[in-house]
Amino acid sequence: MINREDLLSGTRPEVGHRILVTEKDSFQGYEVMDYKGMVWGISMRSKDVVQDCFMIFKGFIGGELSSYTELSDESRQKALDRLLESARRIGANAVINFRFEIASSPYAGSAEVVAYGNAVVIRPIKNYVPTGGLGNILAEFVDAYMVSKGLSNISNLSDLTPKPLPETQKGEIIENNGYKFVFCPKCRVKYKLETDENGKNHIMGLSDVDNIEPGMQIHCIKCGTKFTIPES
Fold first, then answer.
1. How wide is the angle at C-alpha 189 spanned by C-alphas 183 and 193, nearest 5°?
2. Are residues 105 and 34 in the same domain?
3. What is the tens place of the pLDDT at every residue in 156-165?
4. Rounded Cα gap, residues 212 and 193, in angstroms
5. What is the pLDDT of residues 170-196, one digit of tens each?
6. Whether residue 172 sits in one domain with residue 109
7. 21, 119 in Cβ contact below 8 A?
């Protein structure tokens, strides 16, 4: 039978000098190593008076307001460029929870565009194995194909019996000065816990590595041990 980790694993490329941006709180295949804080970029642009007159006239005959489209696009791009430069200055290589916000300015004929997010430092997870539906579908498809072609070296049907998975270890939760922390059961690395609106514990910047097992499971960033975050 094909080894699923050999099929699906693969360390993501290094970020290098780029700044990766996502509207989510993490990147698939990467782990957050450090939080640098909030970053933002602001752009305020005003309309050209002559172009504004043409656009008003075009409002009667119909069609795209091309000058306004270009103005909006330039404002967003400028705000994004300033956000990326701000993240680069403080040593980040990624921005998570990215958002655009557009507001009317108190000055006539102008608008303010704000791009903001959380600057972080990320690194690739070694031998990363995708989780979720896509990873399972790919693995099941290849397993079935190898069996049908007689390439799996199966001696009898007992080889197809799923082997019991090792029991996942649980982290230890402590509370200090109103904050909750969970410790890796092997190397004792400490992680700060957050609680969502449903009362579920999670670690900001890290995603659940096992969608089947109840609760949130993570791999320790230091020793690689997989452990469950207790619910209480």
1. 50
2. yes
3. 444 445 555 5
4. 21
5. 888 888 887 888 888 888 888 888 887
6. no
7. no
